[in-house]
Design brief:
Length: about 200
């Protein structure tokens, strides 16, 4: 099955699942971008605008992410973006462990369909989930984003190895402008990684 079709089928299954947070949300926010992309970005959870439109990263944080991508000549066609949590938590509160456990099997299936060459985790939740090899019970043992951003890491997800680079969540950069120069450096590193050698050689 083509990746696009496999993702459509999974989206349908996610829609039909009785997931926590579904009752209070307006729309499922499943993913956007190119299913054949080599770079997968993973965020945390939909916000207000994402919930209204059913599309990830369309609000303020999304605009900033677009700008960063633009600076390294990437467009939505070069990447795919999904979240840990598929429905908006009320008032944008942090997701709780039960919600993470219930939602993340769908993210894991997205990863297995897309098979990216590199996963960019945005912020603490995505970083801790992926670097715990997708084991929600082990997330607490992973250091925070301040220690890990811009560093090349690896995750093993159902016997497949993936390169991972944690980055600051764009929402954190909006709150704390002083982090921006570090984020610029991290994006430059990403550009170097797929500029010098083709991602195929990873
Ligand atoms: N923040 C996220 O982590 N994901 C979105 O889709 C929007 C904002």
């Amino acid at each position: 099955m083509l990746k696009q079709q496999a993702l459509e089928k999974l989206k349908q299954e996610t829609e039909e699942a009785n997931l926590p947070l579904k009752q209070t949300a307006t729309n499922l926010v499943f993913g956007k971008g190119n299913p054949d992309a080599q770079i997968l970005f993973i965020g945390e959870a939909p916000g207000k605008f994402e919930d209204e439109q059913g599309i990830p990263f369309v609000g303020k944080a999304g605009k900033l992410l677009d700008e960063f991508l633009h600076t390294i000549n990437l467009t939505l066609n070069d990447i795919y973006i999904a979240n840990i949590i598929k429905f908006r938590p009320p008032n944008n509160r942090n997701p709780n462990p039960e919600e993470i456990k219930a939602h993340t099997p769908y993210l894991v299936q997205q990863i297995e369909i897309i098979k990216p060459k590199i996963i960019i985790t945005l912020g603490n939740y995505a970083t801790r989930f992926i670097l715990s090899n997708c084991n929600p019970d082990k997330m607490d043992s992973i250091p925070g984003i301040t220690a890990l951003h811009g560093k090349e890491k690896e995750a093993t997800i159902n016997n497949s190895k993936y390169k991972v680079m944690p980055m600051y969540h764009p929402a954190a950069l909006i709150y704390n402008q002083r982090l921006k120069p570090e984020a610029v450096e991290d994006f430059k590193r990403l550009k170097e990684m797929f500029g010098q050698k083709s991602l195929d050689s990873f």
